[in-house]
Amino acid sequence: MPSIEAGATGPLTTSFPIRLEFAQKAFIVSGGRLLLVRKSASDPFHPGRWEVPGGRLEVGDDLDLDDHIRREVWEEVGLKIEPGAPFHLWQWFMPDRRAPGGGQVRVVAAARRCRAVTLDVSLENQDSGDHLDRCAWVALPEVGAYDLIPDLRPVMRAFLLAPG
């Protein structure tokens, strides 16, 4: 069986079960700066790499997709936002830590442009699974200098090239 690296796109054929999850990422711009968050050294998949706030849908708790992205941003960076329209869809595969004996999670994600209602970021609301240790408002021309999670790179290119 071919191995599938954490976060890598991969084949749909495997001898292990594949569980499907949905995630959203918030691209929040204020004053020509994009909010990025950095994964801590304790992150099991992408330590020290940067991404944007967001995460997986909690099916039983999130009322709708707008509620979902608002909750994720509040938990990760303490901001209130106004969700905008999705501008990009993508997927990645990762090991399923809940499946006994192995398995994978196929995460299908939507990237959304969001407007910040508040601007004072804080990592105090995150849960232990977020593994974030820093956030930064980065000037749009400087985003390319940050070591992004690999699967986020094409999404970031789409964001930076799209009008908006």
TrEMBL record:
GO terms for molecular function: hydrolase activity. InterPro entries: Nudix_hydrolase, NUDIX_hydrolase-like_dom_sf, NUDIX_hydrolase_dom. Its cofactor is Mg(2+). It comes from the Bacteria. It holds the Pfam family NUDIX. The lineage of its organism: Bacteria, Bacillati, Actinomycetota, Actinomycetes, Streptosporangiales. Residues 17-161 form the Nudix hydrolase domain. Keywords: Hydrolase. This is NUDIX hydrolase.
